[in-house]
Amino acid sequence: MERVIEMILRDIEDDNSINARGVNVELSGQGFLKRRKSIHLIGSVDSEMQRQKVKRIAEHHAGDQYAVLDELSIKASV
Length: 78
Fold this sequence. Notes:
This protein is an alpha+beta fold. The protein is 35% helix and 35% strand.
């Protein structure tokens, strides 16, 4: 696992306002020789606020080197 993924997961887990159990972060390469890398945020969170926080954390660590693809869903309230 690349270091950027470890840093993103650590920051998500360290934020007590985010329920990180349903969040997965994956790294993939695209394009010729897979030079363009993307960080995929996959899974579900409890609220829009949590989704935005996870995305902000990923974007912070992604910088200009990675594109962040937000595929997170918000769990339906019961």
